[in-house]
Input
Amino acid sequence: MKGKKFYTGIASALLASSIALTGCSFSSGDESASESSEDAVTVDVFQFKVEFKEQFEELVSMYEEENPDVNINVKTVGGGNDYGAALKTSFSSGEEPDIFNIGGPTDVQQYEKYLADLSDTKAAEAALDGTLTSVKKDGKILGLPYNQEGYGLLYNKKVFEEAGINPDEIKTMDDLEAAVKKLDSNKKELGIKAPFAFPAKEKWVIGNHLANAYIAEEFNHSVMDAYEADTIKFEMADQMKRFLDLQNNYSIQPTLSLDYSQQVEEYFSLGKVAMIQQGNWVYNTIASMDEEFAQNNVGLLPIPVEGYEGIPVGVPNYWVVNKESEDEVVQASKDFLDWMYTSETGKKFVTEKFKFIPAYKGYEDLEIADPISQEIYEYVKAEKTLGWVFLGAPIGWTEDAFGVAVQEYIAGNITWEEVLEQSRKAWEESRK
Amino acid sequence: MHNRNIWFWLFLTPVILGLGLVVVVPFIYGFIFSFTDWNGITATKFVGLQHYINLFQEDEFMASIWFTVKFAIITVIILNIMGLGLALLVTRNIKTNNLLRTVFFMPNLIGGLILGFIWQFIFVSVFNDIGMLIGMESLQGWLSTTRTGFWGLVILTAWQMAGYIMIIYIAYLENIPKDLIEAAKIDGANSFQRFKSITFPLVAPAFTVSMFLTLSMAFKIYDQNLSLTNGGPFNSTQMVAMEIVRTAFSDQQMAFAQAKAVIFFLIVAVIALTQVYYNKKREVEM
Output
């Protein structure tokens, strides 16, 4: 008797909760509404660039107007690690996006079985030389570059002028050192707190960008070479140390708790330092602090590397299409990406609204919107670039091996030799 | 126990279902995955105890455990002293009693991430400026060394949680019969004696509860850690939860991270259960 009651209890409870659950699924009706027009194709985009979320959505709605039979849903999750985690989650939960983003060869390897061949797209054809190397595999092109990015030393033109420093004359480390000393001795008159703001708290600034300038050469400026290398030699270790020490010693202290937003917003945008090591992605942030300063007063110096006068330029991210989606969805995805990078409307959007440095041909007559990107594009056109190799380093190496070691060096816990030793070991171990 | 009728099960089932779906099933899955080479998308082979052997040889993981243990010990002591202290303060007959309670509890309403960023500003900028003003060098450069990072985290946690712990102590303090205290007063016990012999033993159950809460909280802390120091400098203020997330999502070693999480779970469970067991033993019945 008791047992029977138990089972009826369970049964009715299950029934009640299943009714409650169906109730929930009814209420989230907007998804089914979007599939209402019967022959519409729905493409789910999962992208990571928070900075251009709104602009991208604007472009998407323009595309949807032109192509009423295509429905594009955009989901944005920002930041490197967060995006990677969210992408993994959506794959393991079975909600696979149709278009998503990957970084470099390591991601290609992980997601390989999902990546559709994009060789037949117009965008792939228009992609600039070298921008596709890290997504080429077995003769297939698996991704389309987002854009190009470059970095160096951004400087405050006004401060340089007042200090009587001609940025065109800074070619070598000696020149830079002399300029920094000059800035440092005139700090008060120039109204700056220090020549640099060096955010040693941010492991990516050290581990990705600073390191890249001095290891690009030994990997022949190629991501793939770095990806295949069993070891790292640090051939330019002495130069790297000199540049690191210079930035660290002449920075606002303590560098170990200085972060990216302080560096860009609090110190550089407000004119409290003369130089920061950053790239074109900071433009919107600086402009939001001081539009006039961003437009007219920011210049770009290459990081001094012996034998090179160039800016490290590379493709930070790629668009890829999910092979497992239905054929018509794959086709629609390709069409959309093509339209974004090769149609007139798309091209205008890419340069004017996204403020991208294009990674494609056919943009010669278009004006790049922000001055930092413009300068980088000049270097690209003059072929004065260094490779962007850190995306080929072992997973986590740049930040958690090299970045951490440099932080310990800055804190005085270990010597420079130990930094190199530890980082080399970490590289070799993950390549075994 | 007699009232296990249809209503009992009707109300219980959704909870059990929910608990099963979001806690038990993923936990079992995770446990299984920790024995494979799962990379977040697929698991191809069974590696046995390999991850568990590796994790005890990894300096970073052990360092983060040690750091967390130190942090937990200090915060549990500070939080309980502060919580009880504040509770004693606001259960006296002061006019602003209710206002004070609200004020002390308020920090607990702010999310850990935001708190972390606020305190980061205080430690880095405000401390720096004050240090310059009064010429105290020890106030400068906070969060840029391991030691200051540690104390920064302790201060932040104490500030956030003390109000919450206070509420628990208040509940027990207000339950202490007034006549007991009065009787003690008449017998000539001074306020310290009254606290030592009456108040303290009678709030012992509150110790059990709040020690359990603070202990498990201190071990599982993540968002404050992320926003205040982000594990820096050189990952030396990285607590276990953060180390596990890093392993999973920066180093992309999902199964290894899962193994670490299992060990982490065991440590927290063992410590918390032992603590509750011993605290319960020395509680006195009223």
Observations:
- Chain A touches chain B through 39 residues (CB under 8 Å).
- The longest helix of chain A spans residues 2-27.
- The domain at 150-313+388-430 of chain A is CATH 3.40.190.10 (D-Maltodextrin-Binding Protein; domain 2).
